């Protein structure tokens, strides 16, 4: 029984990663750019708080960290075949180095979840490094995969 359940789960995971998405390339590009823009909207204000450019408001910071954490799961789906030309800054290297790109996306999901967790403490000594880790993940991927 256990073995069958495990096989079933493996099958589901495989299916999820190869889900065919019914969308035109330009819709996928708009979708991923939109999710990144929304992420940057919140991350920017969080950065201003970390740097002391605007007053730190623990509750507001925590709310934004939670939003970034949820949004970080979204863009991946928009990186589908046939979407690396036209109105996009996404480089074709994404397809050639898919594992590395996927690793960057997974790191973003994990690190922003950590940041959302740490944000609840309201302790800037913990928040600052966790914020820095997420920022490095954004930049690392952009350096490699964004024009
Ligand atoms: C694993 C790779 C990866 C990570 C991590 C990543 N990005 Fe991006 N980002 C991209 C790519 C690729 C594009 C270009 C998308 C396009 O133009 O189709 C992009 C585009 C953007 C854009 C421009 C959107 C637009 O309207 O054109 C913003 C803003 C952005 N990212 C912010 C962020 C922020 C903030 C983070 C971290 C919290 C982040 N990104 C993390 C790969 C990444």
Q: Which helices and strands, and how do they pair?
A:
Elements: H1 2-17, H2 25-50, H3 58-71, H4 93-96, H5 98-119, H6 124-145
Helix pairs in contact: 2-3, 3-5, 5-6
Signal peptide: 1-22
Protein name: Cytochrome c
Organism: Marinobacterium weihaiense
What is the approximate shape?
elongated
**Number of extended strands:** 0
Uncertain runs with pLDDT below 50, 5 residues or more?
9-16
Q: Tell me, what is the CATH class?
A: Mainly Alpha
CATH architecture: Up-down Bundle
Largest sheet, strands/sense/barrel: none
| Helix-strand makeup class | mainly alpha
CATH superfamily: Cytochrome c/b562
How many helices does DSSP assign?
6
Question: How much of the residues is beta strand, in percent?
Answer: under 5%
The N- and C-terminal alpha carbons lie at a distance of 50 Å
Share of residues in helices: over 70%
Structural domains: how many: 1
Pfam family, one: Cytochrom_C_2
Keywords: Signal
InterPro entries: Cyt_c_II, Cyt_c_prime
Organism: Marinobacterium weihaiense
Describe the structure.
The protein has about 150 residues and is mainly α. The chain has a single domain, classed as Up-down Bundle (Four Helix Bundle (Hemerythrin (Met), subunit A)), CATH 1.20.120.10. It has 6 helices and no strands. Helix 2 runs antiparallel to helix 3 and helix 3 runs antiparallel to helix 5. The longest helix has 26 residues. It starts with a helix and ends with a helix. About 5% of the residues have low confidence. Bound molecules: heme C (HEC).
């Amino acid at each position: 029984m256990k073995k069958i359940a495990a096989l079933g789960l493996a099958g589901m995971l495989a299916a999820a990663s190869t889900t065919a998405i019914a969308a035109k390339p330009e819709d996928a590009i708009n979708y991923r750019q939109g999710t990144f823009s929304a992420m940057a909207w919140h991350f920017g204000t969080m950065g201003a708080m970390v740097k002391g450019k605007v007053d730190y408001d623990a509750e507001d910071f925590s709310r934004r960290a939670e939003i970034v954490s949820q949004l970080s799961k979204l863009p991946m789906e928009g990186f589908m075949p046939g979407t690396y030309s036209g109105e996009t800054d996404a480089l074709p290297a994404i397809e050639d180095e898919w594992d590395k790109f996927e690793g960057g996306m997974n790191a973003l999901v994990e690190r922003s979840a950590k940041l959302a967790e740490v944000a609840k403490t309201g302790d800037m000594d913990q928040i600052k490094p966790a914020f820095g880790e997420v920022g490095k993940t954004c930049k690392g991927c952009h350096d490699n995969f964004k024009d």
